[in-house]
Write a structure and sequence with these properties.
By secondary structure, the chain is α/β, with parallel strands linked by helices. It has 14 helices and 9 strands.
Length: 343
């Protein structure tokens, strides 16, 4: 009897999945609606805006340090980079943590996102002030998802980033306004950690992030059926399926607890007061990760729950570090300006 009920639920779920599948016509209709939000900016054919500096010029202006941090939450020594101005201008510097994507590393912010070039270009123009950048490796060879692995006490990465790293920043930069952002898997980590620790971060950002896990795993409406049940593995997308299940578990309620799209709804609205959110994506970042669709989900929810956010969509951009090297320029301006307003 129980088996028949489960089979029936699975069949109904599959039929519901087919009926509610996000076809292109639905995607285009939703995109047109979201683009009309006053918080959303559409950037056509963006170009890199940073100036090229020689290695010597960058070394004269900036200090790049490699550091390590031990933690009781993970069975590895966690590496991170600190990028800071060699000479501070006198004001309390801002502090910005940037998280990389899956199978990437902290160095990609330096060499692929052109963080130094973008920052120095803006700083020399007087457009932004002092910022100290914290660039951690995710752990687990770039595949930690910044999360606590299911039933695995040796790989509690969310605990490390939420507690050890965050507390270190509070101790070393006690008077600094803090932000956290990330690309792809890092966008997921930044939004999840930021939402769960709003008392620790003033600005939370996702650049083409995996910020709607239930969209990435299965149809979000189907999840409403399976939220208290075991989700059959064949309903997950093929992309990194086995590792995804290893980290988050195949239980619906576990996914929802770690899903930024769901966390926005579950969070007390009072905690959003004074917090700023930046959400960006490329217009062609659709398959296989469905980043555009995830962005639409979260921007719609941010609007519904009255978050103070800026949404940015870049025409013809894909899921690449080249796109991030363009977006980070605009985000640094946003981060600087919003934090200066608070002073």
């Amino acid at each position: 009897m129980i088996l028949k009920i489960l089979v029936t639920l699975i069949i109904l779920g599959i039929l519901f999945y087919i009926i509610t599948y996000p076809y292109n016509s639905k995607l285009e209709r939703k995109l047109r609606r979201v683009e009309k939000f006053p918080e959303v900016e559409y950037i056509p054919e963006s170009q890199s805006q940073y100036i090229k500096f020689s290695s010597e010029e960058m070394d004269e202006e900036l200090i790049l340090e490699e550091k390590f941090l031990n933690s009781k939450y993970v069975d590895e020594k966690m590496r991170y980079l600190v990028l800071r101005p060699r000479h501070l201008n006198g004001e309390e510097p801002l502090c910005l943590t940037l998280l990389h994507g899956i199978r990437d590393c902290a160095d990609d912010w330096i060499y692929k996102a052109k963080l130094r070039e973008n920052y120095l270009t803006l700083r020399k123009d007087g457009r932004i002030g002092d910022i100290i950048f914290i660039l951690p490796n995710s752990g687990f060879k770039g595949e930690s998802w910044y999360s606590n692995f299911f039933k695995d006490k040796n790989h509690q990465y969310e605990e490390f980033f939420s507690k050890d790293l965050t507390n270190l920043l509070k101790k070393e930069y006690p008077n600094s306004k803090r932000g956290i952002g990330g690309f792809s898997m890092g966008g997921y980590g930044a939004l999840k950690i930021g939402l769960k620790n709003l008392d620790s971060y003033d600005v939370v950002a996702s650049f083409s992030g995996a910020i709607s896990l239930i969209r990435m795993s299965i149809n979000r409406r189907v999840m409403r059926i399976f939220r208290y049940l075991y989700v059959p593995s064949f309903l997950f997308n093929d992309v990194d399926r086995n590792h995804f299940v290893k980290v988050f578990s195949p239980w619906g309620y576990k996914l929802l607890k770690n899903d930024p799209y769901s966390i926005i709804k579950m969070t007390d609205s009072e905690k959003y007061i004074g917090k700023k959110f930046y959400l960006s994506v490329g217009s062609e970042d659709k398959k296989p990760y469905l980043m555009l669709q995830q962005w639409l989900d979260v921007v719609g929810r941010a609007k519904k729950y009255k978050l103070n956010f800026k949404g940015t969509i870049y025409e013809n951009e894909l899921h690449t570090w080249e796109y991030i090297s363009k977006d980070i320029y605009n985000f640094l301006i946003y981060f600087n300006d919003e934090m200066k307003k608070e002073k």
